[in-house]
């Protein structure tokens, strides 16, 4: 079965408060959508980075899943 990727990007700019668990809720929404549409989660990876002044935090989640075709999320 083919493997597809879905990227979920989260950004907090200067002054924004990162809510504990906020990313978890959004990531769980994506995982649930994939599974509800017949996909099988293969892997989830995260990369986090900061800009030079550390005023923005970027997180990118890579969700890999198996499905017959790409799933609209």
Protein described:
It is a single chain. The chain is α+β, with helices and mostly antiparallel strands and 73 residues long. It is 21% helix and 42% strand. It has one domain. The mean pLDDT is 87. It has a three-stranded antiparallel beta sheet with strand order 1-3-2, with helices on one face. The protein has one helix and three strands; from the N terminus they run βαββ.
Secondary-structure map:
Blueprint: E1 3-12, H1 22-36, E2 40-50, E3 57-66
Antiparallel strand pairs: 1-3, 2-3
Number of strands: 3
Q: Give the oligomeric state of the chains in this entry, treating copies of one chain as homo and distinct chains as hetero.
A: single chain
Radius of gyration: 14 Å
Q: Can you tell me the residue ranges where pLDDT is under 50 for at least 5 consecutive residues?
A: none
Class derived from helix and strand content = alpha+beta
What string, H for helix and E for strand, traces the elements in order? Answer: EHEE
Helix proportion range = 10-25%
How does the overall form come out from the CA principal axes? elongated
Strand order of the largest sheet: 1-3-2
Enumerate how many helices there are, as a single number: 1
Biggest sheet, in brief? Answer: 3 strands, antiparallel
Distance between the termini: 19 Å
Percent of residues in β-strands: 35-45%
How many distinct folded domains?
1
Mean pLDDT: 87
């Amino acid at each position: 079965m083919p493997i597809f990727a879905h990227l979920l990007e989260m950004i907090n700019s200067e002054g924004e408060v990162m809510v504990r668990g906020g990313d978890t809720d959004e990531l769980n929404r994506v995982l649930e959508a994939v599974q509800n549409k017949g996909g099988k989660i293969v892997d989830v990876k995260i990369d986090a980075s900061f800009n030079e002044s550390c005023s923005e935090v970027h997180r990118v989640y890579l969700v890999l899943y198996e499905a017959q075709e790409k799933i609209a999320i």
